[in-house]
Amino acid sequence: MSATVSEQGAARLLRGADHLLIVSHAAPDGDTVGAAFALGRAMQILGKSVRIECSDAIPHRYDYLFSGVKPQQFEPQAVVAVDIADRHLIGERLSAQCKQVLLCIDHHVSNMKYADHTLVDAHAAATCEIVARVIQALGVAFDREIASAVYTGLASDTGCFRYSNTTPATLRCAAAMSEYGADTARINKILFETVSLARLRIESGALASLELLYDGRIAMMTVPLELMKSADACEEELEGIASLPAQIEGVQAGITVKEKQPGFYKISMRTDGSVNASRVCAGLGGGGHPCAAGCEFRGTLDQAKAAIAGLVGKALLQEAP
To answer: Who's near 204: CB < 8 A, 6+ residues apart?
Structure first.
């Protein structure tokens, strides 16, 4: 059974550990990567041996984070998971190394408490917000590299501070990272204003598949493998694409169904807050946050679309006054 720890408790565990493997979740985003590199640099400053790994390739847009952590080779003695709500999200490549996780730091209310020790704050906008507090508890001075990594996670998971999960604490943390030297303008440019040609092709094809359901309250689009192939795109091109259907005026729930392999789909859901995305996705074995969640489905595309649309439609009817 997992023991719940505070930031101070997490810091004590980390101080007592060495040869750390810090793991980000598969299909990595800015929060899991930022949290890993911020914590990794802090631990190396303390003289610990640290390696950061992910089952999937870390997107090139985050290359600026790598300079903060020195490459080290060793046999891991302890595993720390960041922004990983469920063990299976670690991914297949690292699953064997991560059978026992010393500490999980996360902000998902759906965290499955699979680690020996768990630090979860579901009110935090990003795991990086919690990691910043852990680094404080470690007594490590923030430098430009740590600040850049933390800011990356904050900006990523709040949509550059536009989403409803942004709190005064989030903004204070971001301001502190700016004071510590994070180049916020450059990071925002990389994260939100730079896309590849392949990404534009995917967006075009995905939007062409758009369907409006329940009188326009649900918007659903699909990203089939064939589209990925024709766009000559890799997995990292999909980061953030799930927000597109939710941007349509009048839409309460935006759904993106991505084909991962024949007969296997990843479903992402974004809402305006009137529908609990995490609760809906839990109906298909997934979870996440109230306004952003996901799940997986095995079957045909039509079955996947019908399954998630049915659950969202039911939720919309329950939320109706």
So the answer is: none
